[in-house]
Amino acid sequence: MRIVAISDLHLGVGERRSPNDPPEGFLHDQQLAGFIAHLSPSESEPTALLLLGDIFELPGGFVRGRRRPGYLIVELADLLERVVRIAAAHPGVFASLAGFVAAGGAIHVVPGNHDPALAIPEVVDGLVGAIAAAGCAAQAARDQLTVYPGAFHLPGELHAQHGNQFHDINAFASAAQPSRPMRRSGSFCIEDPLGSVLHRLQLGARSWKGLGSGLVELGNALLAIPVVALRSRRSTGRSIGDDPVQVALQPMFVSGSSAAVRRVVRRTLTRSRAAGEPEDYMLQGARQLDAVLTKRNHGVPIYLFGHSHRAACHRLSPNGPMYANTGTWSAWAPSEGESLPYVEITTGAEAPVVMIRFWSADQETVRTS
Ligand SMILES: [Mn+2]
After folding, report:
1. Separation of 219 CA from ligand 1 center, angstroms?
2. Residue 124 Cα, ligand 1 centroid: separation in angstroms?
3. Which pLDDT tens digit goes with each residue over 37-84?
4. Domain range for residue 45?
5. Which band of pLDDT confidence, cut at 50, 70 and 90, is reported for residue 369?
6. What is the DSSP string of 170-213?
7. Tally of domains in the chain
8. Residue ranges near ligand 1 (ion) with Cβ within 5 Å
9. What is the CATH number of the domain that holds 323?
C-alpha cells in the first residue's frame, strides 16, 4: 500500500472580500491538481492520500467568529458556507480530489490547528458534498473519505499527526475533539489556542484601521492566557489509558505556558517570526512520543508530522525510527527554496519505507532527496 502525504496547504476562500476572511495562503492550484491527478490509484498499487492537517482555513487559524476567551463560537451554517467558498476558490484542486476518489483512491484526513472544525461530522458531510459536486459519486466520496480524530495510526508501521500538540502555543487541550456543540443548536464552541489569537492580533496591529479590533484581540489574548494554561494543566493530569492515539494527543509534550508568553512578547517586540518558535519542538516532541509509545509497546518505525512547514526525512536517533515532515505548499513557507514537498510511504513490505519527494509540474523531474 502506498500512502502519499501532504499537509499545510492552508486553502482559503481566495481573495479577501471582508476583514473576516483569512488571507489566502495557497497559490499552487494547477500544480496540486496535476500532482493529485498523477497519483492515480490502481489495483496493483492501491494508493491513499493522507491530508495531514491545516489543509483548509476553517476556524481556528485566522478565521474570526464570536469569542469568549480561549474559545471561538461559530455557527454551523457559516462553517458550511466557508467549505463551499473554499471549494469555489480552488475548483481544480477539488476536481482532482473527485477524480482521485472516482479512480478508487482513499482520502485520509487528520485535522490540524487551522481546521479543527473537521472534527464536526456535519462539516465532513459538507466537504464530502463539495468533492462530489466537483465530479464524483456522492456515495464514493462518503465511503472513501475518512476524517481521523487527531492522528492516523497504523500499528507497527506508521504514526501520523499534524504536530501542533508539540507546539505550546498551538496545542489543543482536547485534540481528539476540539469542537463541541453549544446548547443553542446550530453553533459550535471551538478551542482557540493562544497561537491563533496572536495571529489575529498581529494582523489587526498592521493597520491603524485594525487598531480597534487589535485592542479587542489584545484584551482577548490576555484573558485567554489563564484559560489556556488552566485547560492544558487539567488535561495533563488526566489519566491517558493505553490507546496510542489518545496517548499521542495529550499536550504533555509541551512545556508550561509562561515560556510561550515570554517568547511571544519577544516576537512582538522584535517583529521576528523566528523569535516566537521554541527550538526543535517537533523533533523533541517526536522523540518523547516515540519513548512513551515504545514503553507501551506501540512504537512504530515511522513518525510523520506537518505543522512546522519544514520538510524533512531522517532518523530520530542513530538506528532509531524515522522522522518525516510533509512541509508546506502554502505561501507561508519558512524560506524560498525547496517547494511542493510530499512524503511517500510504502507499507506491507517487510519494513515500511518512507521518503521525502518534491513535486514538479514536469513529472519527469520528480526527485527523491
Ligand atoms: Mn498547523
Report:
1. 24
2. 19
3. 999 777 778 899 999 999 999 876 566 667 777 788 888 998 999 999
4. 2-281+293-368
5. very low
6. T--SSTT--EEE-SSTTEEEEE--HHHHHHHHHHHHTSSTTHHH
7. 1
8. 54, 112-113, 164, 307
9. 3.60.21
